């Protein structure tokens, strides 16, 4: 057994501080079994998707992308569409575009530009704010250091 001296080795656990427990459980269940019997909503699915995308577990990304495709509604459209655009998820992006095109609520939000810039861009709104514009306007960024 290799030992790196990391606390995960000693504790035999891994802390994921920036994700809800239900999302971590969902992610792990999908990693280990490829399926789940638990009920979960879009928030848990999006959080689990963030983990899968960050850790490059493509099979879980695909499973959650397909699950989220079936969950898109007027209430969660913006958060799911933004995640689809940000992560380059083509199937989910297409489902969001289709949903948004047929939803009167989303169409009203698009016309009023009341959706995040990523979502406006996904929906093909002309003159949508460029991706990352908010970060550029926030001031100078910290320099990255090569390791």
From TrEMBL:
Domain BTB: 1-70
Pfam families: BTB
CDD domains according to UniProt: BTB_POZ_ZBTB_KLHL-like
Segments forming a coiled coil: none
Alphabetized Gene3D superfamilies for the sequence: Potassium Channel Kv1.1, Chain A
Protein name: BTB domain-containing protein
Organism per entry: Polarella glacialis (Dinoflagellate)
């Amino acid at each position: 057994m290799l030992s790196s001296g990391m606390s995960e080795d000693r504790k035999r656990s891994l802390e994921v501080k920036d994700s809800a427990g239900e999302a971590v459980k969902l992610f792990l269940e999908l990693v280990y079994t490829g399926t789940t019997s638990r009920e979960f909503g879009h928030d848990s699915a999006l959080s689990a998707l963030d983990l899968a995308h960050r850790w490059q577990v493509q099979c879980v990304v695909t499973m959650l992308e397909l699950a989220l495709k079936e969950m898109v509604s007027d209430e969660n459209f913006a958060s799911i569409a933004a995640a689809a655009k940000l992560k380059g998820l083509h199937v989910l992006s297409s489902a969001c575009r289709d949903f948004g095109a047929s939803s009167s609520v989303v169409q009203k939000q698009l016309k009023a530009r009341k959706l995040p810039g990523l979502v406006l861009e996904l929906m093909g709104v002309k003159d949508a704010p460029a991706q990352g514009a908010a970060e550029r306007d926030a001031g100078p960024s910290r320099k990255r250091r090569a390791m």
